[in-house]
Specification:
By secondary structure, the protein is mainly β. It is built from 2 helices and 60 strands. The strands form 9 sheets. Strands 12-16-19-22-25-28-31-34-37-40-43-46 form a 12-stranded parallel β-sheet. Strands 13-17-20-23-26-29-32-35-38-41-44 form an 11-stranded parallel β-sheet, with no helix packed on it. It is elongated and about 140 Å long. The N and C termini lie far apart (about 85 Å). The N terminus is likely disordered. This is Pectate lyase superfamily protein domain-containing protein.
Length: about 700
């Protein structure tokens, strides 16, 4: 809240002139009234009144009215400038209140008799009030419905040429916005605040001290009760309102807690400075914040641009935040980072969304770095939609993730070129991977353009496109195009490498699951070389097939491992490029036939209408009960027949044997005359369709 020392802010929008002081009441010992001016004037009168008492214990109230030319009296509201900013019609001893007396009217003040001893007094300053408070008064009335107060700093004493430091003045207005516009919140034990919009007019401003935005509430236990601060550039776009960091500052903003909307700015930094630290990496359960959370939430940055920074955002804790049409350009200093998400001691950062954002020209650093922790400290759910990443330096990594999961890139462009790096002596031998993932999963690139450009010596490339460490997996590239700059036919293994200090842990699956073209979009897509099918009741029971790169064989197998696929000790079946099918055994179809009953096998006829082929038939019997024969579809030709089997083209009836004959439509029929029920198996070598 403002105190008596803050009263000098009332003059911060006026030219520096000698104030005219008037005394309306010198000694008010009893109830009464005063008027000012004595006669109506031909212009509006701006006046700020100080309601006083002769002792610290003196109390009294003052009601304000205007009297028009017809003698009609009506209430005149004013804007209280101290304690807390508010529109009032009744003032008390100690209040500092600004009024506008309309042309042709007279101000009338009716006051009570003083309480607590002493006398009352009223003194005023003409023409020295803050228009900002008057505009805020009307806006505050509107805020009862719209929850929005607009404060335009057009007349604030800010240097718009960017020479004099404006940080103190901007900090004062931010503090006012966060503390003085109170409305009742859902949580009756605390208060929430209306959204306050601070508009900085067109111009360039210098910030040489860190500006703190702390929207925390006193004893607040309700997420719904929060402060929203809307800081807006008044220049109609990023180029209209420019804020530059000063020579003594190393950090422009400290966005400690709350909700922030920021739009329409261009921020100039330097290679040793951070634009903003956001939240904290640990809770601070002390003071007025019982929950201890120190974070930025439900916030929105739009139509902003950042230039020449070493780091733009250093995130201690953030969630549910949107970046829309923002640009991050021309970084400097050592190991620059556009967006740096740090590991939190208790909670993860999540739900960060970027729409049509552009990040470009970053030497020797990383655009997005997100370092989480294990278990509950894993960052998650970032989304990038139509964004553009371009390094201009091969020693730059575009995205680095550790313990970060469920990240989506949709219709984004990733360009790893060296147009700036060549001047820094960066070559293929010092190139960094485009993407570095450690202990991260569920990363999706959908319809993206991923390319490494300007490579003249592919053999000298020190890094592949992806570097994977530990248990990273579930990296999917769907559609789009992926060009690693190798100028040769590319396979999946040409795209990734294991991290040296934290090697990739193989779980059997291919690390990159690509269903899109490599290099040339006219080529067919590259599908995964493996597939695993698990039981819906027990995921450890898994069938799989995979392409064997050494032999080009297609292999099938079964495993019950928990943490790895395709680790069978021996395959179940494999297929070679010559069409050879290798397996331990091949079983025919079994039917159970009762004694003296018959059964018919329907032979496939697609491409083989006569159902020709070589057949084997055998029964579970303790003698040589089998037959191997050829069928033309009209006649059966024996190859080998056991002693307890009978083979004939027509129906056979030999007792004590399995009678095998040609049934209708060239199908094979078997009559069981062995004396007991038997399982009979038939297999067929036919013609492929």
């Amino acid at each position: 809240m403002l105190n008596k020392q803050d009263n000098n802010l009332l003059t911060d929008q006026q030219d520096v002139t000698t104030p005219e002081i008037v005394t309306l009441l010198s000694i008010g010992a009893t109830a009464g009234s005063v008027q000012y001016p004595s006669e109506p004037t031909g212009t509006d009168i701006e006046i700020t009144l100080n309601y006083g008492g002769s002792t610290d214990a003196t109390q009294g109230t003052f009601n304000t009215f205007i009297v028009d030319l017809n003698g009609k009296k009506s209430v005149l509201p004013g804007v209280r400038n101290n304690i807390n900013i508010a529109q009032i019609t009744q003032a008390s001893v100690g209040d500092l209140v600004s009024y506008i007396i309309p042309v042709g009217c007279i101000l009338r003040i009716e006051y009570t008799a003083p309480n607590g001893g002493g006398t009352l007094s009223i003194k005023g300053v003409l023409g020295m009030m803050s228009k900002e408070f008057l505009f805020a008064s009307a806006a505050l009335e509107a805020a009862k419905v719209t929850d929005r107060v607009i404060i335009d700093l057009f007349n604030a004493p800010l240097d718009r040429t960017g020479v004099t430091d404006s940080s103190d003045i901007i900090q004062q207005y931010i503090n006012r916005a966060l503390k003085d516009y109170q409305v009742v919140g859902r949580n009756t034990s605390s208060k929430t605040f209306s959204t306050v919009e601070l508009t900085l007019p067109r111009g360039q401003y210098l910030i040489d001290k860190t500006i703190v935005i702390d929207c925390s509430l006193v004893n607040n236990l309700s997420v719904s009760d929060t402060i929203t601060l809307h800081i807006k550039g008044g220049g109609g776009g990023p180029s209209g309102t420019v804020i530059a960091i000063g020579p003594n500052a190393t950090q422009m903003f400290d966005m400690k807690y709350g909700q922030i909307i920021m739009e329409g700015f261009k921020f100039f930094g330097k290679g040793t400075a951070i634009f903003a630290k956001v939240g904290r990496t640990q809770r601070e359960q002390m003071g007025t914040n019982p929950l201890g959370d120190v974070m930025l939430k439900q916030s929105h940055f739009r139509d902003c641009e950042w230039y020449y920074w070493n780091k733009v955002f250093e995130v201690g804790h953030m969630f549910d935040v949107k970046f829309d049409n923002c640009g991050f350009f021309n970084f400097g200093g050592t190991s620059p980072v556009a967006f740096d998400v740090l590991k939190h001691s208790v909670d993860p950062t999540n739900n960060l969304m970027f729409y049509r954002c552009h990040m470009e020209q970053l030497p020797g650093g990383v655009f997005l770095r997100s370092i989480g922790g294990a278990a509950a400290l894993q960052h998650n759910n970032y989304g990038f939609f139509g964004c553009h990443f371009e390094t201009r330096n091969w020693d730059t990594t575009l995205v680095e993730l550790e313990h970060t999961h469920r990240i989506g890139f949709y219709n984004c462009q990733f360009t790893h070129n060296n147009t700036q790096g060549a001047g820094r002596s960066i070559t293929e031998a010092t190139a960094k991977p485009m993407f570095r993932f450690r202990n991260s999963s569920a990363i999706l690139f959908e319809n993206c353009t991923i390319s490494r450009q300007d490579v003249s010596n592919p053999a000298a490339l020190a890094s592949k496109v992806f570097e994977l460490g530990s248990t990273s997996g579930g990296i999917r590239i769907v559609g789009g195009i992926l060009d690693p700059g190798l100028n040769v036919p590319t396979s999946i293994n040409d795209l990734w490498q294991s991290q040296a200090d934290l090697p990739y842990v193989d779980n059997g699956e291919t690390p990159l699951q690509i269903t899109g073209p490599l290099v040339d979009p006219r080529y067919p897509p590259m599908f995964p070389d493996k597939m695993s099918l698990s039981s819906p009741t027990a995921r450890t029971r898994k069938w799989g097939w995979m392409h064997k790169p050494a032999t080009n064989e297609l292999e099938f197998g079964y495993t019950q491992s928990t943490d790895k696929n395709y680790d069978w000790s021996d395959y179940s079946m494999k297929l070679t490029t010559e069409g050879v099918l290798s397996s331990t055994s091949r079983a025919g179809k079994k039917k159970t036939i009762a004694n003296a009953a018959t059964a018919t096998w329907t032979i496939p006829s697609a491409g083989n209408a006569s159902r020709r082929g070589i057949f084997t038939v055998w029964a579970t019997h303790n003698s040589d009960c089998f037959a191997i024969f050829f069928s033309s579809g009209q006649t059966l030709f024996p190859i080998s027949v056991g002693s307890t089997a009978n083979l004939s083209t027509a129906e056979g009836t030999e007792a004590g044997k399995l009678n095998i004959y040609l049934g209708a439509n060239g199908n094979i029929t078997v009559k069981n005359l062995l004396g007991t029920n038997r399982d009979v198996v038939l297999s067929h070598e036919g013609i492929t369709v």
